[in-house]
Amino acid sequence: MIITCPQCNFSKTVDPAEIPDRPVKVHCPKCGEAFAFDKAQLRNDTASGRPVPATPEQISCPACGLIQTGGERCHGCGVIYTKLKARQAGSGMGQVNQAMGNGSAELPCDAADPTPGLLPKAGFWIRVVAYVLDFLLLWTVEYLLSLLIGLTVGLLGLSVEGDPSIEVVIWLFGAALSIGYAVFFTGYCGQTPGKMALRIKVIRTDGSPLGYGRAALREVLGKFISGILLGIGYLMVAFDSQKQGLHDKIADTYVIKLSQ
Question: In terms of residue numbers, what domain contains 40?
Fold first, then answer.
C-alpha cells in the first residue's frame, strides 16, 4: 500500500498488515508534517469503484493542528469540531484561536470533552532551565539599575556604602522588580521570557487565561509556600502525574509544552 504525504507528495510503500484499520497519525519522513491516513476508507473507496483522489482536500485541526481529510472530528485528538466551536464561543476563546494562528498556543482536545489535562506538561528540569534564564535576565537588569541608583546617590553627595537605609531601599526595589516581573509576564500571557525561550506556558486547569490575580496567587503566595517547605513544593513537579508543583495546585494551574 502506498502512502503519500499531502504536503510534499513524498510516497512510500508500506505493508498493509502494519497499518491499523482505523485513522492513524503519520509523520512524513521528508517534510516532517503530520497527517491522518485511513486505510479502511481507502480500501472501501477502491472496492466500491469510487475514484480515490491522489491529494484529497486537507484541513488542519483547530485543536491539535493535525493535517487530515475533512470530517466531523479530528482523527488525531478526537475533538468534535462543532462542539469545539461552541465551547470557544461560550468561553471567549477567540484570543486563543488568534494565538494558535501563529503557532504560539494549543487548545486542549479530547473525543468527548476537550480538557487541558491531556496537553503535554513541562517537567521539572525544563522549568528549572526557564527559571535560570529568567534569573540571569533579572540579575542583569537589577545590576544595571543598582549602578544607576549608586551613581544618582553619588551625584547627590551621599554615600551608599554603610548606609542601611539606602541598602534597604535597593533590596526592596530588587524584590519588587522580581515579583512584578513574574506576575506581569505570567498574568499577561502565561510566559516569562525564560518560558518563551523554551516554549512552555502557564495556563489554568480549566483552560482559561490566568489573569493578574491568579498569577499573583501562584507567583507570590504559592511559590512562597513551596519555598518555605524546604523546596518540597517545587520538587513535587518531578513526581506529580500532571507535573504540578504545590504553587500550581494552589493556583489551579498547569505548565504545558507548546507545539514547535
Answer: 2-114
